[in-house]
Design a protein that fits this description.
Elements lengths: L9 E5 L3 H12 L4 E5 L2 H10 L4 E5 L8 H11 L4 E6 L4 H9 L4 E4 L4 H32 L9 H13 L6 E4 L6 H10 L8 E5 L5 H9 E2 L11 E2 L1 H4 L4 E5 L6 H13 L1 E3 L6 E3 L3 E6 L3 H6 L5 H8 L1 E4 L10 H16 L5 E2 L1 H9 L5 H15 L4 E2 L16 H8 L4 H15 L4 H8 L3 H11 L4
Parallel strand pairs: 1-2, 1-3, 3-4, 4-5, 6-13, 6-14, 7-10, 10-13, 15-16
Antiparallel strand pairs: 8-9, 11-12
Helix pairs in contact: 1-5, 2-3, 5-6, 13-15, 17-18, 18-19
Length: about 450
């Protein structure tokens, strides 16, 4: 993906003092930004109705009867993707903090420091450019490659889909890495659907929990009389998938003896049914997946090195849901619609409190856990919107329950230390993403940045 460090934006400057407006326009235009200047709130609102902007820089006080908050409200209505930056005197900082909770991106105190303005605007421009690229790429990938069934607008997921569209037409083996529930089989299906083998079968098998004997029979099949109860010949999964794609889920849990047999199949392109000596030629593409450290298993002699290099081909690591929280809202929307369709219910959405809980929960079971939680809540919900009381106990503990443990953890430390620990844990939870952390904490990103510096925290 491209770098957004020098991203250029369309900026609306709203400032009633002409000299200040000209200084801001000149300072930002030198960075390549395209600036439009208006000197009052009504003029800004007219512009917002007729022209999209990436960033809006507005003075908080635009005259006796006008406020930058009116511009903020108009931006939310007519240009919702725009980043709004407020310029304010020190006396109005509290108002700006409230504005941050209402959707403003940041604020700058007077007297205006052009370097600070450029820094804040550049950060907003980077985010705007990145999100525009993500939206355009998502639309292109969905239209051309049919990735609409893979929900996610995070940069990480779109980079994965970009990789998939490059490797899918080849016969390169693919190894998918990721925690349980991240959607490895869904991605394997997408690779098959965009390959030259898409008209042939996609066969999947979970290698975990199967004994060597059962797994061999499932993969390679058997002939009549191979063992007691084998009343006739049976094709295995490899024969079933001939010409198509074979998906080996949790390949890291395959017994060592079976690993040797699988390696021979991949090297020779032949399978031998249990109880037979006759090889059968097969032509399949292999996609493997695991939630374990396969390289570590190779080092510990738990997984064959030669098989590892045979299956790894193109390796795709799928990040857990807690590291791509921007995917949670569209996933919720999709799962809500699916649950309504399946169970003939009419749940319209979530309350704000529920949405906040779902955004901050770490989701150890990843996308699968989120889907199951939404479905269960839709079934049990007694109103149009899922409320806080509908949340499962493992996701949300009501105030007062478990409070003793929480107090014991906090007892004996200062409020400053408690705040420091809260910020540290939140940053860790969102992998250092300041914008997400600030939203979860209910403070402005600028305030969070100051706290990070004040406490000497590493992101």
């Amino acid at each position: 993906m491209e770098s957004y460090r020098n991203a250029v934006a369309d900026i609306l400057i709203v400032e009633d003092e002409t000299a200040h407006a000209e200084a801001m326009e000149e300072g930002l235009s030198r960075l390549g930004h395209r600036c439009t200047v208006v000197h009052d709130g009504p003029g800004a609102i007219i512009r917002l109705k007729s022209q999209p902007f990436d960033i809006i820089v507005t003075d908080l006080m635009l005259g006796p009867q006008e406020s930058g908050l009116d511009v903020l409200a108009a931006a939310a209505k007519h240009s919702p993707a725009a980043k709004v930056i407020l310029v304010t005197a020190h006396a109005s900082v509290d108002t700006c903090r409230t504005a941050l909770q209402q959707g403003a991106f940041d604020y700058i105190e007077k007297p205006l420091d052009l370097d600070e303005l450029r820094t804040v605007v550049s950060r907003a421009a980077q985010l705007t450019a990145q999100r525009r690229t993500i939206r355009d790429l998502r639309e292109r990938l969905d239209e051309k490659y049919g990735f609409g069934n893979i929900t996610g607008n995070s940069l990480a997921m779109l980079e994965i889909l970009n990789t998939v569209q490059r490797i899918a037409p080849t016969d390169l083996p693919v190894l998918l890495l990721g925690e349980s529930g991240t959607g490895k089989e869904l991605l394997a299906n997408a690779i098959h659907a965009n390959s030259r083998r898409s008209d042939m079968r996609f066969a999947a098998i979970n290698c975990a929990g199967l004994s060597e004997t059962l797994l061999e029979d499932e993969l390679f099949g058997h002939v009549k009389g191979a063992y007691t109860g084998a009343a006739g010949d049976r094709r295995g999964r490899f024969e079933h998938a001939d010409g198509g794609t074979m998906f080996l889920d949790e390949v890291g849990d395959m017994p060592l003896a079976m690993q040797a047999k699988l390696l021979r199949v991949l090297e020779n392109g032949e399978v031998v049914r249990v109880g037979s000596n006759e090889p059968i030629s097969i032509n399949v593409r292999i996609i493997s997946a695991t939630n374990s450290d396969l390289a570590g298993k190779v080092s510990n002699k738990e997984f064959r090195q030669d098989l590892y290099f045979r299956i790894k081909g193109a390796t795709i690591a799928i990040p857990p849901l807690r590291r791509r929280r921007e995917d949670i809202p569209p996933l919720i929307e999709r799962f809500l619609q699916q649950a309504n369709d399946t169970h003939d219910t009419k749940v319209k959405g979530l309350t704000k409190d529920v949405a906040n809980v779902l955004m901050t929960y770490p989701w150890p079971g990843n996308v699968r856990q989120l889907r199951n939680a939404i479905e269960n809540m839709v079934i049990l919900c007694n109103s149009e919107r899922i409320a806080i009381d509908d949340l499962p106990g493992e996701i949300y503990t009501p105030p007062g329950q478990g409070a003793e443990t929480q107090l014991q953890q906090l007892a004996g430390i200062s409020l400053e230390e408690a705040e420091k620990e809260l910020i540290r844990n939140t940053l860790k939870m969102v992998s250092g993403n300041r914008e997400q952390a600030a939203g979860i904490l209910g403070i402005g990103e600028r305030t969070l940045y100051r706290k990070i510096k004040e406490y000497g925290l590493k992101e």
